[in-house]
Structure formats: structure tokens, C-alpha cells
Amino acid sequence: MKWKKRLLRERHSLTASAFFTLAVGFWLAGVVPSSEAAWQAEANLPELPLKETVSQYGLTWTFDQPAPVGQFVNGDYYIVGPVTVVEIDPRPRFGLDVEDDELDHREKSRLRDPRHRLRNGSMLNPPAVQRVGYDSGIRNYFRPELAARLPIKMKPGDSLVSTVSLKIGEKNDFPYHGSGRVRGDHDNSPVKTAAVLTCMAEPQPPDAFRPSYCDPTNDVYLARNLRRELLGQLPRPDNTPELDTWVRVFQRPWVNTGFFGFDQPMENMPHYGQWVGQAQSMAGLMLMLDSPPAEKERLLINVVQVGIDYWGVIRGGHPGWQGWGGHGSGRKFPIVFAGILLGDEEMAAPTKTFPKVNFGEDNQTVYRECWTGAKVCFAGHSGIHHGTGEIPRSHWGPYEHLHPSEWQENGLQGRTSEAYRRANSSSSWPGQALVIRMLDGQKHWNHDAFFDYVDRWMYEDDKEFRRVITEHLPDLDLNDRKEWACQGQAWERFVTDMWFKYRPTFEAPTDGWKNGKSGSG
Asked: What is the pTM assigned to this prediction?
């Protein structure tokens, strides 16, 4: 067959991962069945080259001796071990090797022991907890004892996360909400970028995803098992974003076991939780369009890899990313999305598998009588914890059951919660909700209030309600000119347009939020 001849011709000039991508491209174009494409890719798996160094995203690892090196389907590297990493460039620097003039203002005021100074740190098998050892400028979560020191011995199953630190005054570069930021300013992370090197016992199929950097099981998922037929082929609207930009947004590892963005590499992922949620909405909807299969495949692989990584963090015992103002959004979606596409029921339903894990979208939505007449509410800045019903900060918990005239009584921070509801949470959720509906994944998501709340946000006419809120809380000033604070829109126009075109096509009514629990099925 012609496709086989071309594959064989191209095979000699391609890496294993690139070869598999070509095979998948033929399959998605309807030229070759998936089983044959996967078989052909494995049958032509080249012998892994022996290398003494591996470089990615500005980092280089050097080994004590040449060892077999391969690449996962997303482009990240693995090495067949055991192996010892003897050098990392840029080199990790500890203690007084970090000069006084390299410290940002937070380190100068907080870091008492100069022996704990760190730049360009690495962690071997990062624990699934809110503690990291990458850079001494990381607020709240930095623990110097977690930083790996050379030489680093790696055995099969190990993951090494290495980072590059931002220098004083250096600006990061990222294509979606967060470029041009410097260390020590506001909530910015001092970590510039991160890469993951994995040690495996044997060569992997060219369509293997990288195991999560936190997954104790070291499970390997295969791209051939992705149920691509579940993805839509919807016509691309005129305002569809550039695919290449979004391939880049999801390309590098989303290293994220901490919170508030304090530990997140600034060139790897969106920094603020609102932007994380918006990114998931954008990418998820773009994967439902009729873009060229090969281009769509690159974004699909990257989004699924992010889901696998977050799933591994949860499996490792992480408590999740709770609702906290605009933080905590966007971590559940890629797990559910990847689980559905891979046919992994446990991954697809993370809060069924781990009932106490927290995600912002769930914490901040609840069925309850709202002062507007709706039957679903925003549950406040800090919301209600999933599985336990705990309200971690009662004064920043549910408030919409009260009239705005009561929001500031008895220390209740209704004003703060309403500000976050409008500016930083709700508008980042519609795309996520719409994609999960398209995949018929509401039962996997396991929190119906989220879907009914998003319907309410998009369909409830809040003009009169904004007038009442402003009357009692004039500093909010929710006037029509502040479009970002008005219901009926997502932060990105592309998402808004997709919502109003496709949400009405589902059997579930769009006004279930008026009755409670009827619109999410």
C-alpha cells in the first residue's frame, strides 16, 4: 500500500515520536486504520541512540557514561537506566554560591540561613505535596532539603525535574497571560522553566506518553488508545485562535504541586488560576473543531500529557487545587478530558476515585437558593471542600443565599467573593463545561452544580441584580461598561461564541439553574 511505502521511506529520517505522529496523521486523514498505524510505528522502532548528554528547554543533563536515550510522544526525553546524572547546565547553585545581589527582596527579608539559598534546583521524584526544592525565592512551599544534589543516581521509574531560575530583573516569555514578569514581583514564581527527564527500564513505544513526574505507579499510557472519534469536527469560526500558539501553551511540563503559582515555571504554564481555567477552555474547544488532523494532534497530545501529569499528582496523594478567589481553576478539566479520551474510568472521574480531592470549579459551585431566584450559587471565595462539606473559611464561603444588603454583616466577605465571582472565576469556566458536555462527561465530572452554575452565568440576565449590588456596595460599581464583570460572557470571545452556538444543541435545558439539578444531565 502507498501509505506503507511512504512510511518506510520517511522512517529513516525521523525520530520515533515523529514517526508515530506521521502514522497518526495518515490514520486521522482516513488513510490507514489505527491498529495498522500503531503496528507500523512499533515495527519500525529504531534502536535507541547512546548519548552522554540530553538537552531540552535550556537545560542539559550529562551522564556518567553514554546510555540509550529516547523520546516520549510529547517530545520529552527518557533514558534507559540505571544511570547517574553528573552535571546539569545551568548548574544548581547552593548556599553562598548564590551572591547577595542575586537575592530578590522577599529572600532578603525571609531567608535567614544563607546555606538555604538555591538557584536552578532539581528534584528527584517530587513528592505529591505542597513542598518543593527548586529555588529559594519560592514563597510558602520551598524546602531546601528536597533539592537533589549531584551526582544524582536514577533507576527505572525515577523522574528528575530540573529547573532554570529567573535572574534579578530578567523577564520571562510565555504566549498567554504572564509574559514579561520578573522574580520577586507580586505572586510571580522565581522559576523560569522546567524539564522532566524520566528513567525507564526499557525502550518505549514511540506513542508512549511520559509517566507523570509524581506518579508512584509510573504508568505509561499510549497515544494509540486515544479515542479521537469522540472529538468534534465543528466548523472553525472566524475568530479561532492560532493553533501553534496553543500547542506552545501546553508543550512544556505543567509542574505544579504548590499553590498560588508560587512554584509554577513561568515559561511552562499560565501563572494565575483564572488563566489556567481559560487555557483549558480554549484548548478543549479548539480540539472540537475541524482543524487539520496533524495540527490538532500536536495540541491533543500536549493537553492529554498535562492531564496525565495532574492525575499522577492526585494519585500520589495531593489534596488538589482548592477554590481560593481566582486560584484553583483548570486542573480538573485536563484529568477528566484525558481519562475520557484514554478510556480510563478512574482518571475520567477523579473525585469519584478520590472523594476528598479538591478543585476550584467544584468548591465554588453549590445547589442553594440564591437571592436572584436561581437554585445554584457561587459558593464564595474559598467555597466548600469536596467530599467533606467543610467550609474552610466561613466568612469567605457561601454568601449568595443572602441579599446584597447582608453581605458585609458579621464579618462575611460577600463583597470580596462577588468580585472574584465576576472577574476571576466564572468567565474562565464556560469552555470547560461545554467540552465536557460534548464528550458526554458530566457523570465523570461528578459535580452537577458546576454545569448548572455555568448555565446560570451565561443565561441569567443580571442587569437589575448588578444595580442592586452596586446600590449596597457602591465600590463594586457593576455598570454595563465593565463587560468583564457582566454575566453572559466568557473571558475569551471565541469561547463565548462557541457557547451560544453549541450549548443550545444539547437536550439538557439551558435554564436548569432555575429549578436545580435539571440542566446538568
From this structure: 0.92
